[in-house]
Each structure stands twice: as structure tokens, then as C-alpha cells.
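Open question from group meeting: does this chain pack into something compact, or does most of it stay loose? Before anyone orders reagents, we agreed to write out a predicted structure and look at it together. Recording both the input and the output here so the notebook holds the full record.
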Amino acid sequence: MMEKPIAPTDGECCESGCEPCVWDTYYEEMRLWREEQKKLAEAETTDTPEE
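C-alpha cells returned:
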């Protein structure tokens, strides 16, 4: 399981238009993390026995 990404701190972005920016990397990691969380939640729902 992935750990939740940590947002860049002040000063990590140099604001010079780097490609990719630390923020681009962070947003992509967050997208992947959210997808994983969604899949895990769905798996928990389908693994729960019905009464």
C-alpha cells in the first residue's frame, strides 16, 4: 500500500517553470494514491459477507 504523498514545502518549488515541477509530481502521486484508496475501499465492500 502506498503512503499518502506529502505536499512540497515552502521553497521546494523554485517557480522557474521546471518540467516537471515538484507540484506536478505531487499531484500525480496524489492521483495514484486516491485511485489506490478507492480500489481498497471497493475491495473491502466486496469482501464483506452479506447477512
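Observations to bring back to the group:
The chain has one helix and no strands.
The first helix runs from residue 22 to 47.
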